[in-house]
Amino acid sequence: MSGPRPITLLIAALGGEGGGVLTSWIVRAAETCDFPVQSTSIPGVAQRTGATTYYIEILPVKTGELGGKRPVLALVPGIGDIDIAVASELLEAGRTVANGFVTPERTFAIASTSRFYAMDEKIAMGDGRFDAQKLRQVITQNSKDALLIDMETLAKKPDALINAVMLGAIAGSGRLPIPVEAFEAAIRADGKAVESNLRGFHAGLDAARAKTDGVVEQDAKKPARNTAEALEAEIERTIPAAAKPIAIEGVRRLAKYQSIAYAGLYLERLAPFIGGDARLLTEIARHLAVRMSYEDVIRVAATKIAPERLARIAREELKSDGEPFTVHDFLKPGIEEMCQILPPFIARPILLYSAKKGWLGRVYFGMEINSTSISGYLRFLMLAKLRGLRPYGHRYKEEQQQIEAWLGLVAKAARLSPQIALEVAECARLIKGYGDTHARGRANDATIVQRVIFPVLAGDIGLAQAADAIASARTAALVDPEGESLAKCLAALDAGSTRVAAE
Amino acid sequence: MERSFKTEVQSLSLGAGETFHGEGILAVTKALLQSGVSYVGGYQGAPVSHLLDVMVEAEPQMRALGVHVETCTNEASAAAMLGASINYPLRGAVTWKSIVGTNVAADALSNLASPGVIGGAMIIVGEDYGEGASVIQERTYAYAMKSSMWLLDPRPDLPAIVRTVEKGFELSESSHTPVMLELRIRACHATGQFEAKDNRKPVFSGINPLTEPAKFNYSRLSHPPVTYVQERLKVEQRLPAARAFIREHKLNETIAGDVTDIGIVVMGGLTNSVLRALERLGLADVFGASRVPLLVLNVVYPLVPEELREFCAGKRAVLIVEEGYPDYIEQAVNVELRRADIQTRVYGKGLLPQAGEYASDVLLNGIAGFLKETRPNGLDADVVAAKALAIVAQKTKAAATLGPLPPRPPSFCTGCPERPVFSAIKLMQREIGPTHISADIGCHSFATFAPFSMGNSILGYGMSLASAAAVGPNLAKRPISVMGDGGFWHNGVITGVASNLFNKGDGVLIVMQNGYTSATGQQFMPSTPVNREGPSGMSIEQTLRAMGVKWLRTVRTYSVATMVKTLKEAMKTAERGLKVIIADGECQLARQRRVRAQDAEKLARGERVTRARYGVDDEICTGDHSCIRLSGCPSLTVKPSPDPLRTDPVATVIESCVGCGLCGEVAHAAVLCPSFYRAEIVRNATWWDRFKFRLRGAVIGALGGYNPRKPVVKAAT
Q: pLDDT, tens digit, for every residue of A402-425?
């Protein structure tokens, strides 16, 4: 049987993004054109940032021309039956593809390239983000035509909600027999935030017509300032091109963190690896700079009172136009943090005594400091000024020993293969955070050194499996904070299998 | 309420000759008014939360007609309302979410169905089955059968729904039986239009009350010995009367087709899906004409034997499209055909899945299978089946290229007052070890998702404490039961608290006092501070004290450290007996709606307003995400590290932050990193604010720090 077919539109959004309002705009616009239209949604999961969808069918034949016949429109989107799939977020666009709604035969996919990370992506201890490049690729490959634009950024400038931008993109796609004016009229008829919605609508419309997102991709990285010209000249001379930018960044960071001499130490530590594998050198340069600029109270204090920081908060977060504001920082140093800057001969007895008393990990000094007040500023300033004394502190000594030990392992592993050395170097990723998190990272690192890296260096684990074993253990350590995955992984390793549960 | 229907309810006043445009739930409400109901009521729950919201917001229109509106405290109380129709010629309708609401209402329903009704009684059940469902997957059908109530499942098309409501009241009255009208979630929210009729003023109502109460009539009671008589009446009189009415008024529909040797029997609610599947296979058009004949059951219980016989006669085979398990309709059709000795083969479950929703791919596969199996005259079954296969294959291919995607279940809103309680439980568990968590229905059940992943059982709304009754005595550590204030009043106060106290039980109960039944859209409930009639005066704390709870603490939810301390105390104290912690914090969605409006007014009046938001210093954050694992706030997320030397993403607070303070509390209570800060701006500042700000800037600037009045000079890179 043949006859007209409805145009089907699937909207994938997150609760709270105004998908319901967007749907009602489209329905109203279709109604003003006298097209039969039906929309459905599943509220209930629409709240609270869960993924949800809205579904619209429009019969592109005016009611007056149907001779009294009424179409039977579907309430549920059909797989392979969607003409326009719109998503406010890239992962959700991917979900419409995975669910079979987007097909190369008929679907025009409109997706925002912006990401609103899902909980599982956020709670990973390392990087749990889904591969955005893959999402873009799959959406483009599986659709008849695709429009990928950063709707979040497009919405920001006109201070609109993303739903208005989505409407603009739909209108601009030219896939609906509804004129732009009908959509505008629908927004006006709504009577709410009309001006900002119209601005958002036009931002989406223009982007869709131009088929570009109109947004210049900005480099998110903030490189440090040039402070150590002599050292940079040395890098220029000695370090291979691939590792150069990282080494320069490292030198700049460490000069600011401590001194030019400390940055010099960094280059000295890198020197033995020059001439070896370039990728290994790059990764060592990266991790070494991070490890040498370990987070202590001095660094935190200096960061907190940096004028750029307060200017950024005022400008970007508070949108202050000269209005008074305050910034309150939350700190809760424990005995260990206090001891970091004391000389080892004082720090050690205090730490021993505290450990005996069971104070470590239990006694903390909680404080909320108003960094914009004079007293708050002075407190941080005093701490920041202790920079010169840092090398005499307990933590400094401890960190340098651990860095040397780590570099030693990497150097030994490099004799086996650059691949294994790279995996050993990467273990530096485990050490991060503060307090409990930091302690746990160190413990995990120590466990992996003992149970995997030492056996590798001793030849107890075959060369063929070595890199894989270290990588698996490291990945497992970053799966859960309770260490269950790491334990499982190590047990599997002991059982002779290096393919591990963590993958 | 979460959503306002102020403008939409205007359409409830439309009269004959006008066209109604709007959502399914509004159409149902309009149909109730067109049917002359005297009373309506119900208990919220998706999919019909909005139906109750509409009834409440339409109170002015309702009052003008004399219709009484009751927001019941649970479904049992709503079902019992229908008791008014047993003795009086009053039409009434109540609504709730099924299956769970029907379970709660079951006692009253049995006792209503037994004596039967004089006035039409209708239950509008929101069928929470399949896509987006938040409850156990069971069918309402069983209730209809066991209590002898008729179950209507109209085609999801507004005129059809409206007609079914109107005819449903007549059916109820002509067969003296309560009827249930089942609406799936998408039908509740489907938009469309229909020709309105004038609203009917009920004959008897608040405006024109009955003068005399009903005379004592033992046969109208559900009490022995008349219950034995009533059981017989149900099958001997009411059932035949209903069948006759359904047949006479053509409540079920047939769609004729040219492929006459087969047919499809479909539940009304699935008609559009089946027609669309047929259309995609080239066997139907968009106007509902089909080559395969269809019997559309707008009444799924009772079935009308004559209709089934007529439809099946002369057909080699029929396919029953019946969603959910057990296959009641398929069994009934088989029995009927056997009785009539009709040899039509019945297909259903088997070609279609036994369980689960009948989504588009399921129906395509099922219908293709049916055609291949029966090979009807006049069409090439293989060609049609190949079409279906190709469509379904595309989905498999696409899913395989992407691999598993991170799920995105609903979660606690930004600034939710309940989230900090679970942060506190997590911190407490770090010290005293894992504890049994008896979970409940409500927003707090989102704690079963990451990052909390808490909860050992969910037994129903308000049931958490009761479901820990036998856990506590058999477990070394006290179980913790979590209950919302909605669940507390729904039934937790009796089934949980009273039972625990009566049995001198032990254990810990956390009552989330956020002031609304928030999960269903912030409806009012007994302890809502200010509801539509003004404050009710009911208080959870006073109720618990009056019941005899000795160990009772009220803790502000955002005070994580205090909450951790209180929880530890409740877990460790030697004192026996129920220990209740009232976790107090207003639903943030409701609060924001109020506060934002107030702040906007203040700003406009030139009054001082402060706004706070939280932030993370990306230079200090090392990207381990402990804070996210402890908070789970939608506004606390990750972004690429701006540090060229780091690859793992860092935490960040996005613009939607409402400044609830949990970030700071968790950073403190859990001893996280020092990267969190609270930034606060003063709008319409006083001269003192400005003076202080300038003075600070001048002094700090002179010391080399940030002076807001001097631009920050960026050194050349």
A: 999 999 999 999 999 999 999 999
Closest approach of chain A CAs to the CA of B701, in angstroms? 9
Task: Give the pLDDT score at A48.
Answer: 67
**Model pLDDT for residues B338-351, shown as the tens digit of each residue:** 999 999 999 999 99
Which residue segment(s) compose the domain that B540 sits in? 419-590
- State which of B333, B367, B402 marks the end of a domain: B402
Is A74 in the B-facing interface, judged by CB distances under 8 Å? yes
Single residue among A210, A245, A280 that ends a domain in this structure: A210
Closest CA to A287 of A125, A137, A407: A407
The closest CB to that of A323, out of B620, B646, B682, belongs to B682
To the nearest whole angstrom, how far is the Cα of B490 from the nearest Cα of chain A?
A: 19
Q: B287 and A70: CB-CB below 8 Å?
A: yes
Nearest residue to B28 via CA among B118, B175, B157: B157
In B66-216, the DSSP E strands lie at: 68-71, 92-98, 121-127, 150-152, 179-184, 191-195
Verify that B230 and B261 share a domain, yes or no.
no
Q: Is the ipTM of this complex over 0.90?
A: yes
- My answer on whether A318 and A174 are in the same domain is no
Which regions of chain B are under pLDDT 50? 715-717
In this structure, what token pair is assigned to residue B370?
A: 């049916």
In a domain? residue A204: yes
Same domain for A336 and A442, yes or no, is no
Q: Which domain holds residue A328?
A: 297-392
- Provide the domain count of chain A: 3
Query: In this structure, is residue B582 part of a structural domain?
Result: yes
User: What pLDDT shows up at residue B191?
Assistant: 94
The span from the CA of A493 to the CA of A325, in Å, is 55
Residues of A whose CB is below 8 A from B186? 40-42, 55, 75-76
Q: How many domains does chain B have?
A: 5
Q: What does the alpha-carbon distance between residue A342 and residue B146 come to, in Å, rounded to a whole number?
A: 79
CATH number assigned to the domain comprising residue A91: 3.40.920.10
Contact (CB<8Å) B286/A324: no
Among B458, B467, B496, smallest CA distance to B100 is for: B458
Choose among A1, A99, A332: nearest Cβ to B285.
A1
Task: State pTM to two decimals.
Answer: 0.94
Q: Which residues of A touch B449 (CB under 8 A)?
A: 119
Q: Which residue in chain B has the smallest CA separation from A91?
A: B405
Contact map slice: A 272-301 vs B, CB within 8 A: 286, 289-290, 295, 299-300
- Minimal CA–CA distance to B141: which of B161, B155, B125, B121? B125
Residues of A whose CB is below 8 A from B706: 305-307, 309-311, 372
Considering the domain architecture, whether residues A331 and A376 belong to the same structural domain is answered as yes
CATH at B638:
3.30.70
The reply to whether B387 and B274 lie within a common domain is yes
Identity of the amino acid at A477: A
Contact B185, B50 (CB under 8 A): no
Q: Three-state SS for B97?
A: strand
- B residues 593-622 closer than 8 Å to A (CB): 611, 613, 615, 617, 619-620, 622
Q: Tell me what the mean pLDDT of segment A301-327 comes to.
A: 92
Q: Minimal Cα distance from B711: which residue of A?
A: A311
Q: Is A435 on the interface with B (CB under 8 A)?
A: yes
Candidates A78, A122, A225; nearest CB to B625:
A122
Strand order in the sheet with B92-98: B68-71, B39-42, B92-98, B121-127, B179-184, B150-152, B299-301
Let me know how many helices (H) and strands (E) chain A has, helices first.
Answer: 23, 8
Is the pLDDT score of A46 beyond 50? Answer: no
User: Are B204 and B290 members of one domain?
Assistant: no
Q: With residue B629 as reference, give the H or E element that holds it.
A: helix B626-631
B8 contacts in A (CB within 8 Å)?
A: none
